[in-house]
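lol forgot to send this yesterday, sorry. struct tokens for the thing we talked abt
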């Protein structure tokens, strides 16, 4: 699978993943006034965002034909 997540997109995914992870842990610890169901949902969102940022590929982007990687001069990614 080709990389389809650009640099800015990766930074946004890292930020969203970090915030979702902290919110998930805060919910589990009782520090955030969120329903108990929010913790695992936020945890999965955090893992998905951080994994796609780390690998540079997003399955949903591939299905939708979205590519935020800039085309480089060599033609390969």
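and heres what i got for the seq, position by position
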């Amino acid at each position: 699978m080709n990389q389809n997540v650009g640099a800015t997109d990766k930074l946004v995914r890292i930020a969203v993943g970090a915030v979702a992870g902290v919110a998930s842990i805060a919910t589990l610890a009782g520090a955030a006034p969120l329903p108990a169901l929010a913790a695992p949902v936020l945890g999965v969102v955090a893992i998905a965002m951080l994994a796609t940022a780390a690998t540079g590929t997003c399955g949903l982007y591939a299905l939708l034909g979205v590519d935020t990687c800039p085309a480089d001069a060599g033609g390969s990614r």
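The radius of gyration is 15 Å. anyway ping me if u want another try
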